[in-house]
Design goal:
This protein is of the alpha/beta class. It folds into two domains: 144 residues, 3-Layer(aba) Sandwich (Rossmann fold), CATH 3.40.50; 57 residues. Helix content is 44%, strand content 14%. The chain is built from ten helices and eight strands. β7, α9 and β8 form a beta-alpha-beta unit.
Length: 220
C-alpha cells in the first residue's frame, strides 16, 4: 500500500476565510458600475475609478449614507447594488482554483464572509465554475467582526483574506491573521495601514503563507 501524501491533513488545524467581491472575484469595474447605477438613479452623481477606490467602504449602509442616500432608502440602495452585481459576469482572481483545492485537500476549513448577497455569490460560483469545497458561505454580512468571531474557535490558526481596510481591521479584531489582496477595491498602501500582515496578488500565494505558518507552529 502506498503512503498517503505527507500534506494530506497538514492544515487540519487551520481555518482560511475569504471575502468575495474584489478578493475571490476581480470585479472592481462591475462593483463601480453597480454603485454608479444606484447613485445615478438618485441623482447623486457617479464615481470614477479613483473616487471609487477612495470612497468604497464597508459596511455598505455606511457607505451609501456617506454618499448621500437617505436613511430610509439605505436598504433599497443595497438591494439594488446586489441585484446589479448579478447582471454581469466577471473573472476569478488568479490562483483561486488552486488555492481552494489545495487548501481543502490539506485539511483546512474554508469559508466566505462577505457583504455580497447570496444571489451574487451563487451567480459567480456558477458562472465562473468555482470549486465546491467551501465549508461555509456567509453572505449579506453587516458586521464582519461578529461573523468571523463565530467561526474562530473551529481551528487553532485562522486567516482572513480580503481587499479592503475594513477586511483587515475586522480580521485582526476577530483573532485572524489578515491577508490583503492587491488589485481589489483598496490600494496596497491602505491595506498595509489597516494592518495587513501579507499582501498577495494571486490566491495561490496563500498556500505557502499558510503552510509556512503551520511549519513554524510545529517547530515550537
Amino acid at each position: 500500500m502506498m503512503d498517503a501524501p505527507s500534506n494530506t491533513l497538514a492544515l487540519a488545524d487551520t481555518i482560511v476565510m475569504f471575502d468575495w467581491n474584489g478578493t475571490v472575484v476581480l470585479d472592481a469595474d462591475r462593483a463601480r458600475a453597480s454603485l454608479n447605477s444606484v447613485l445615478a438613479a438618485r441623482s447623486l452623481g457617479t464615481l470614477n475609478s479613483e473616487e471609487f477606490s477612495q470612497r468604497f467602504r464597508l459596511p455598505m449602509r455606511r457607505m451609501f449614507r456617506d454618499l448621500g442616500v437617505q436613511p430610509l432608502d439605505l436598504d433599497e440602495a443595497e438591494a439594488e447594488w446586489n441585484y446589479q452585481m448579478t447582471q454581469t459576469s466577471t473573472c476569478l482572481r488568479a490562483g483561486v482554483n488552486a488555492a481552494f483545492l489545495e487548501l481543502s485537500a490539506a485539511g483546512a476549513w474554508l469559508g466566505v464572509v462577505s457583504a455580497a448577497s447570496a444571489a451574487a455569490v451563487q451567480f459567480d460560483q456558477r458562472s465562473l465554475s468555482v470549486p465546491s469545497v467551501l465549508d461555509a458561505v456567509d453572505s449579506e454580512v453587516a458586521d464582519k467582526v461578529v461573523q468571523l468571531s463565530k467561526h474562530r474557535d473551529r481551528r487553532n490558526r485562522a486567516f482572513y483574506v480580503g481587499d479592503t481596510a475594513y477586511d483587515m481591521r475586522s480580521a485582526t479584531a476577530a483573532g485572524y491573521i489578515p491577508i490583503g489582496v492587491a488589485g481589489g477595491y483598496s490600494t496596497e498602501d491602505v491595506l498595509w495601514e489597516a494592518g495587513a500582515v501579507h499582501i498577495v496578488e494571486s490566491l495561490r500565494e496563500i498556500i505557502s503563507i499558510v503552510s509556512d505558518s503551520a511549519d513554524q507552529a510545529e517547530s515550537l
